């Protein structure tokens, strides 16, 4: 499963259960984020043992995007049987500031900032 | 209703009324009536990145200390995030086809960056907005952020992330616009650097 655009890409590897985001995501509210929400919902529904959300190459995310990721984390948490790892990069300063909130939503979530 | 609210500007939160004059500042101004929101959206990112890029030359630009590139990247990213969220809010909440412009100003001071977004909103929506501001000012922003997300409530997340993740101070000024059913709202964000 993959979403490719001029400004960002979202790719799901079904064998490794890695979801890789790259580029810059600043869409207008939940309507424009619908295709990404749908992709994330599909992945959660499959209930893989472990999901790795790889955001290392996501240089920018607006608050609507943060909200979409947060809802995904709540969805995964509520299913109770999925391990969640989020990988960010210190070179994207927003990730050091904002990704810790995902852990507050799901305390068992593992956050790695490379 | 207290009529003094209509004639005298009303201040909420942390708002500096007479900004000290800073040497470095930028103002961008847009007309809400010229092109549809959908087309303008892309300009938010461009404007935010431009403001951050342009001003980054001056961050920590004092002669007595070497610019620290990590710090510079951090401030640049914060300016881009905050400017983009303010512009998104301005585009989303201002009166459609309003004759009044949406403007964003950024003032650089040695330890403080001050953002001001001004837009107009329909006068009958000001009470709703003011009561949201009161909720924001009286709550623990960390708790409110989590509560909003758990309730699947998206609005106001931009302001909450600024408070929680960037440690900003927020303030608002409401002013009536003569011979208009719109109010001018200025949102001020103070980011310590």
Give the CATH architecture of chain A. 2-Layer Sandwich
User: How would you sum up the major sheet of chain B?
Assistant: 6 strands, antiparallel
- As a percent range, the share of strand residues of chain A is 25-35%
Query: In which order are the strands of the major sheet of chain A placed?
Result: 1-2-3-4-5-6
Task: Give the total of beta strands of chain B.
Answer: 6
How would you write the strand order of the largest sheet of chain B? 1-5-6-4-3-2
CATH class (first level) name of chain A: Alpha Beta
CATH fold-level label of chain B: Heat Shock Protein 90
CATH topology of chain A: Transcription Regulator spoIIAA
- Whole-number radius of gyration of chain B? 17 Å
How would you describe what is shown here?
The complex is a heterodimer of chains A (114) and B (193). In chain A, 39% of the residues are buried. The mean pLDDT of chain A is 96. Chain A has a single domain (2-113), classed as Transcription Regulator spoIIAA (2-Layer Sandwich), CATH 3.30.750.24. Chain A has helices spanning 29-32, 34-46, 63-79, 93-98, 100-105, and strands spanning 2-4, 8-13, 18-25, 50-61, 83-88, 110-113. Helix content of chain A is 40%, strand content 34%. Chain A has 114 residues and is an alpha/beta fold. Chain A is built from five helices and six strands. In chain B, helix 5 crosses helix 6. Chain B is built from six helices and six strands; from the N terminus they run αββααββαααββ. Chain B has one domain (4-192): Heat Shock Protein 90 (2-Layer Sandwich), CATH 3.30.565.10. Chain B is of the alpha+beta class and 193 residues long.
């Amino acid at each position: 499963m993959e979403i490719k655009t001029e400004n960002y890409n979202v790719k799901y590897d079904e064998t490794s259960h890695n979801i890789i985001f790259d580029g810059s995501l600043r869409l207008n509210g939940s309507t424009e984020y619908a295709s990404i929400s749908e992709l994330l919902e599909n992945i959660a529904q499959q209930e893989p043992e472990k999901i790795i959300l790889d955001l290392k190459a996501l240089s920018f995310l607006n608050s609507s995007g943060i909200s979409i990721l947060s809802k995904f984390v709540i969805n995964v948490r509520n299913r109770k049987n999925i391990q969640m790892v989020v990988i960010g990069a210190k070179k994207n300063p927003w990730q050091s500031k904002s990704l810790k909130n995902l852990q507050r939503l799901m305390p068992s979530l593992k956050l790695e900032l490379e | 209703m207290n009529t003094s609210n209509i004639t005298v500007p009303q201040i909420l939160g942390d708002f500096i009324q007479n900004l000290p004059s800073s040497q470095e500042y930028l103002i961008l101004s847009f007309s809400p009536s010229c092109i549809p929101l959908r087309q303008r959206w892309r300009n938010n990112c461009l404007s935010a990145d431009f403001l951050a890029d342009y001003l980054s030359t001056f961050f920590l630009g004092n002669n007595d200390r070497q610019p620290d590139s990590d710090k510079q990247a951090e401030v640049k990213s914060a300016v881009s995030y905050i400017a983009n969220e303010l512009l998104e809010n301005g585009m989303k909440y201002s009166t459609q086809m309003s004759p009044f412009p949406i403007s964003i100003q950024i003032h650089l001071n040695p330890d403080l960056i001050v953002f001001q977004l001004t837009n107009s909103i329909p006068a009958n929506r000001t009470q709703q907005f003011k009561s949201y501001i009161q909720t924001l000012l009286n709550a623990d922003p960390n708790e409110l952020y989590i509560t909003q997300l758990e309730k699947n409530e998206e609005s106001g997340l931009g302001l909450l992330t600024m408070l929680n993740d960037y440690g900003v101070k927020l303030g608002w000024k409401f002013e009536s616009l003569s011979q208009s059913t719109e109010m001018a709202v200025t949102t001020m964000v103070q980011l310590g650097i």
